[in-house]
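TA notes. Do not distribute before section.
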Amino acid sequence: MIATNRKVDGPDGGGAVRRESPGTGPASTGPGSTGPYSISVTDAGPFQSTKTFLQGQNATFTDANGHKITVTLNGPGTGQLIFQSTTGSGNLSQILLNGTDATSTLTIHGATPLPTIVDNGSMGTINAQQDDLTGDLSVTGGLNNLRLGSASGGHSITVGSGGRLNLRIPTLTDESLVSAEAIGTIHANQWTVSGSSRQQISAPSIQNLNVRGAFNEDVNVSGTVGQFNVGSLSSSAIRVQSSIASILAGSAADSEIFVNVTPSLTTLPASASDFASEGGLLKNVRVRGAFSDTQVAAWNIGTATLNNLQPNNNGTTFGIAANQVAHLHVTPAGAKTMTMNKVFAPFAQTSLGGDAVLRIVG
């Protein structure tokens, strides 16, 4: 018996493998027989094509929206543009980079969706300010600068060590950032989630985070945070092991701002054992607008200013916990400002109105 495999094109430019086997009847016993045949079709997936580019070279293509896109690599390395078509046009499915280092720069001109980007080396700069990242971005080594138009779709940006990451992306939705290297700056207009599952920023340290509008991402930092400025903070867990120099928020709701608090704790600390160790510092925290159902805790708090405390929280305690607070300024909604200075143990707890409290532990 003789079996044959034939490749056939699908309607979308993809393909399938068709396996034809002669039957066992008398009409199929010789060469050139016409049957009977049994046919099975197995999808082999869409065909791919690639464009390779080297240092100083441009790779160009026209995407599915008719936009002409130019991709350039300066510095060491090679790159491949991978398409799910045989024509080398349409939208990209992957950008693959090899042999790059901290002096390499990838630049993309033209607005197009960016799918998976994989760099198996390090990278100085990825500059794609017109483009939406719709897949994962992964750099094995360090990455110094990342500039995108937006990032969305429930994916992650993962960066190894070796540099200092500076990120500028106006709009991020359902996006996580995992960096093994220190983060210098994060600049965005908003960083939000579209559903109930929050994403996370994870890094050894962050020098400056500035999000002008809404922010409801979790943050996990194993070292220090310098400036943390957001337009509004909601449904976020900000957890830092060592210290925070300054937090400034237009409003804060349903969130945690914890410095060196036991990782499993999600409520306001009630004793010294709720802190991983003594010595965590929150130097300054200021919420200019409404402050509601939010926990703020650090062993040492310098200045805390809550300008519009919403005291009623359906019987659930919230507020501030510390071993000592140098300066506290709280203005409950519709009430006068309360000011307290040099508050420390054995002072225990005082009401800030309604369900809000200042709790001193230790």
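Switch to the second chain here.
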Amino acid sequence: MGHPLCPSAELLVHPPNSLKEHTSEALEFKLVSNSGLCAIDNMTEKENNTSRECPICSSSNTPVIAQMSAQQIISSNPYYDESWYERLQVKPECSFGVSRCGDCQFVFSSQVPGDEFLDKIYGSSGSLESGIAVFTRPARAAFAYHSYATLLDAIAVHMQKDDRGVVAEKVKILDIGCAFGTGSLGLAVEGYPYEVFGVEWSQATRDYLAKQGMHTHKTLDEVDSTLKFDGIILNDVLEHVPDPVVFVSKLANHCHKNTAIWVNVPDFIEWRLNDILAQMSEGSMNVPTDMNPWEHLSYFTPQSLTNLMAGAGFKRWDKPHVDYKISRGSFLNTIKSALRTLRDSWRIYKGSYPNDYQTSGIFLPADNLESPGKSQ
């Protein structure tokens, strides 16, 4: 998913025209409710205790549990500098909230940024070259290729193929929030058995991807509704979406019974979230970049991610086995390897393998009873 140097990904299911109301003094954040859209100009407020409804269960019992200033957000983010106060038309003391649902306990940004604010955040403020450099840095590339390796491993189980493992039809993959296609472009090569589609907010980035052989769209709604994909990549996307329930439900329309979806979001497991909130209440100026309410609107735990996907008809991939290499270098290493095998075999048998406790992984349609395993 993107950042200010280069926007990426689907910020909204589609750009909501109803959000295009702005004040003459400042860019606006919005308070969304089931009864309609209520605009609030909190750019001029030092503290704002109003909150939108829960994006998961629609409860209005959503107290603000933390506040952070524009100064905290900008000073904590390596992609922002002092020029962003003018760019976004915010003052250092302007306050932005984080809310917790009193019913389902989900944590989320108290307000949703309007279209003009998003355009300022995700509008290109750097060169194409600098954006590519950021998104193809070794650590990011390693993660992107890991995501694709996991996705392709899951896809391979159900694709029709011959004795050599060659697929009968092209593998259709949708990468939402593809940025500069790290991972995707490795498959979008002429003659390769893949057809790769990308959803990307930035026109300049879409133009770049199209030249590399990818089919590109600005939003999910622009993708042909009749297209069904064999694999979908959601790397750091769901936390940017104002209404993740609607988004994932729309995503289901592009799935067949064997579609595999790779999902990754920042992990706000309870102990980490509580630690961040405690530090903020004690006056810490540091705001983790993955809690920036201008860009990240939902703060998932492993369980809330699982619940969100289950609500749209998807289940986690329960990996059926773990491969180990038994080292013959020493008797002690052999014993250690055997013990790890026994430990993880027990975890799998009990249904408590550690992948269940991560905010990343493969999700499958719930009516797909066969979980994918390793395929050669």
